Amino acid sequence: MSAEGTRPSRFPARNARWAHNHRVSWPADVAASEDMVVSRQGPTVPPPPSANGNGNGHPRKLNLTLSGEEREHLKAEVVYWGLQQSQQGRVLSEEQLQAEYDRRLNGVEHMLGDLESDVQQEYDRVRAADQLLRDREERQQRARVAQPEPRPTFEARPLLQPEPPSEPGRWTPKPVVTRRNALKLIGLFGLQGAAAVAAVKVTDQRTSDAVAAATNAGVPPAAAAFGASTPMDVTSDLDLTKTNQPFLAANFNKGSSLFATFPGSLTNPNPANLAMLHPPPALLAKPGRVREFTLTVEEKVIDLAKGIKWAGWMYNGTIPGPVIRVTQGDTVHVTLDNSAGKHPHSVHFHSIHPGNQDGVFQIIQAGGKATYTFTAKPFGVFPYHCHIAPFDQHVARGLYGTLIIDPPTPRPPANEMVMLINGYDLTFAGNNDIYSVNGMPGYYQDHPIPLKIGQLNRVYVVNMTEHDELNSFHLHGNMYNYIPMGTSLKPSIITDTVHMGIADRGIAEFVYEYPGQYLFHAHQTELSMKGWSGIFNVT
């Protein structure tokens, strides 16, 4: 504080109620203080690159600074804060008030600097993308008017592709406005700040569209539009006492969802996916019985929902793979046919088996075929999946399914269903954008599953949702007996909701007493709104 005392103060003489002529030290418990949140002047967002008519003007440099009025407003806040401190018996010196003012001013200027850098980078990126488009349009125009000539021989030049952020000097498609920056910007600049956020988001979309058009390497338009509306990341460093939620509710959110509208389920999904709902029947144990299955790897593009396509890796052409059902004690042969695959793959079963059949080191190369053999035990419900690095691709792309091992004496008769719940990361951002039951987002919401009053229902639930720490199974209007892992004949709990990490699974048994339509879905709102929801129609 001694150095601060040598600087000329920006504060006028103080009111006699809190003026003082002696120096006091800061109390240890009041080192942190409030931050300025509200200001009345918004930043200037750069115009689009074509604002000069031809898009070839000189690059613009953005400069975001606090106005004199805003600095006076900040000064007044510090004075008011000093009065509050004096009312609590903490008399502050001129140097301490000056230091508090400097701290707040530096914080605001630092935030503005970050925003200025983000918007400037986005502006420069838009210019680069627009230039790519103009160059291509000029080439196409020249090609249309030029006389036919013999086709020359040339070496293909790779299209300009986005580089990782770690390589400086190259533009990189990325979201400019996160929820953190948006809330800070709106809280700082009010309605003008909200308009600035909208302008930057439009600029970001212009760039994304331009890059996709110029490189011809974007996701399908409907998927891009869907993914572009995902919620912005949440921050934990806001001073929540200074967050003006009523202002945000009235001027920013206005009652709208934080999540994109689900585009709708497929009208005619793959019949093999529909068949997964009801598994093959259980069999009594039989000594010496051998069960044989073949899983054929396919790498192809499939439809997930209306307007949404997925470049998947899958067993037998479906995501998830087929339901494999055996009885404890059966000898099981599973042949993995990777003849048409472009990558090495494997099958790893969750159960008890020898290490040389585990599917981790037993890799089937592209073009190859091999068989895994094990004795089915113990009884329960298990996932199976590829276990080749990178795991986030080999699993998340769709190489997984359900294995049911029945007890030697099957469980009591019931209406049995299999529900494997999963998610799809459409933008390769490590976050799922839509979710499904048995690979069909939203299908059972639009096509309810018929049930009967008094009927025993048994659902084998398996969670294979990558990128989300938890998924869940919630049942409306009822409770269910739940058997974790399915490795017991008796339930552990009676509940209406169970939360599951990836590879968690269990058996839910329930009977409906009353007719009607009842939801079943994830109890995480986002997952439910993005496709993981269905209806039981009980009659």
Largest sheet: 6 strands, mixed
CATH architecture of the largest domain: Sandwich
- What's the Cα radius of gyration? 31 Å
Mean pLDDT rating: 77
The order of strands across the largest sheet is 10-9-12-17-14-15
Number of strands: 19
* H/E element order: HHHHHHEEEEEEEHEEEHEEEEEEEEHE
Number of helices: 9
Any key phrases for this structure?
539 residues; alpha+beta; Immunoglobulin-like; 6-stranded mixed β-sheet; 5-stranded mixed β-sheet; 27% helix; extended; disordered N terminus
Fold and architecture overview:
The structure is a single chain. Helix content is 27%, strand content 22%. It is an alpha+beta fold and 539 residues long. It has helices at 68-87, 94-145, 179-215, 221-227, 245-253, 271-275, 391-394, 443-446, 525-529; strands spanning 290-305, 308-315, 324-327, 331-337, 348-349, 369-375, 380-385, 400-406, 415-424, 434-437, 449-451, 456-463, 471-475, 480-484, 493-495, 497-500, 505-511, 516-521, 533-538. It has a 6-stranded mixed sheet, with no helix packed on it. It has 2 domains: 4-24 and 32-133 and 171-253, no CATH class; 271-538, Immunoglobulin-like (Sandwich), CATH 2.60.40. The protein has 9 helices and 19 strands.
